[in-house]
Amino acid sequence: MIGNAIRSDILPVLEIGGFAAHIPYHVTWTHEQQDHNLKHDNFIELKSIDEIIKFLTH
Hints:
Number of domains: 1
Structural class: alpha/beta
Largest sheet: 3 strands, parallel
Oligomer: single chain
Number of strands: 3
Order of helices and strands: EHEEH
Shape: globular
Radius of gyration: 11 Å
Distance between the termini: 17 Å
Helix content: 25-40%
Strand order of the largest sheet: 1-2-3
Number of helices: 2
Strand content: 5-15%
């Protein structure tokens, strides 16, 4: 999963054992805002979608 919302995009995927990449966006709905310091083996945080290529080619 690649998403911009920790609460609805990232956490559900990690809970079922999937891999997730978070790309923060400067505008986030209030119900999606969440301070996070997420540490998980299946999680990465990216600055842009372009960065995903290096993770997919490993």
